[in-house]
Predict the structure.
Amino acid sequence: MNRSVEDTLRAVVDALERRALADRTEALPALRSVRALLANDEAEIAVDYLVNTLNAFRLALRQDEYGCLVTAAGRLDQADTVTDLDPRLLRPASEGR
């Protein structure tokens, strides 16, 4: 596994967890599952699970985070997975915490 890909995905999950915690959403266990997949060297599955989690819990994703996700997914040959993300969940980089 490319450590920078894992770190990039972990940074996106960190930001999502901070917002989910502040908003008290039920998405926290699902985001922790993404982190567990990354810890177990399952980054490809983590990308898919993360996109499904975003869609299922209607979690907003800032444009900069989306860019990181697309880059990481591309390095894992999982770029097609990111196309499943609902575009209505994307927010400007300046929005959010």
User: Anything to note?
Assistant: Residues 8 and 68 are 6 Å apart (CA to CA).
